[in-house]
Amino acid sequence: MSVFPSPVPPSAIITRLRAAGCVFAEDEAALLMSTARTPDELTTMVDQRVAGLPLEHVLGWAEFCGLRIAVDPEVFVPRRRTEFLIDQAEAAALSGPSPTVILDLCCGTGAMGAALAATLSKEAAPDEKGVELHAADLHPAAVRCARRNLTPIGGQVYEGDLYEPLPATLRSRVDILIASPPYVPTEAIRLLPSEARVHEPLVALDGGADGLDVVRRVIAEAPAWLAPGGHLLVETSERQASRTAEDMAAAGLIPRVTASEDRYATVVMGTRPIE
Questions:
Q1: Do 221 and 98 fall within a single domain?
Q2: Which value, to the nearest 10 degrees, does the dihedral of the CA atoms of residues 82, 88, 94, 96 take?
Q3: What does R_g of the chain's alpha carbons equal in angstroms?
Q4: Domain of residue 36, residue span
Q5: Distance (Å, rounded) from C-alpha 135 to C-alpha 246?
Q6: Same domain, yes or no: 219 and 256
Q7: DSSP 3-state assignment of 82?
Q8: What percent of the chain shows pLDDT beyond 90?
Q9: 184 with 96, same domain?
Q10: Do the domain assignments include residue 63?
Q11: Predicted structure pTM score
């Protein structure tokens, strides 16, 4: 809890949050009170949350794979279901070479790259550099946010459309390519919770008519950037998984679909064959 005496009792904050539709009002109240530095800041934060601002934008951070990730306004909030992709990426990386070259495309806050780098660095031998981390995003706000999260751990963040801003020296060197591109069909955007529709960038949500426009582009160019035996892991929906796997096979990758019912998460992995 905050170190200052709050002018508003916790029960009143919980009541306001619950009335605004916050399902986990007690937990959110505790987070707001522990993050706010002054009574006025706490009041402002509660007002913002009641007005519909995503909790992570109000706090300025999100928990992801045990890390506290900075989250700026107008940047896509990392989802807990995406932790399943990191689990799959970790398993794939540990079966490959060390150090590992990671590329996080459509990186948003850089949460995926940060989490995977942290995990693999722990697994590295004391005399080894665990990872070489690169990330890219089209949205300037996301790039600024990702640099806050990744630059301190040695990551390089590029601004541009998918592979376009990447250095040519990365070609055929990427061991793990992770991507959570926009995959919501355009017509389904209106069905998303208002927190996403109103406060997160459309470019991070809208995947085109069938939701796979950006996914297809990620897959099509991936073989040129993956090292032999390297893996592309893409988050998608259960309904889109088979088509995504077909696109990976057409691009020359060996596809595999994994899913977690508990996290409501689906990941399609494509591996570049070792020639």
A1: yes
A2: -110
A3: 20
A4: 10-51
A5: 26
A6: yes
A7: helix
A8: 73
A9: yes
A10: no
A11: 0.90
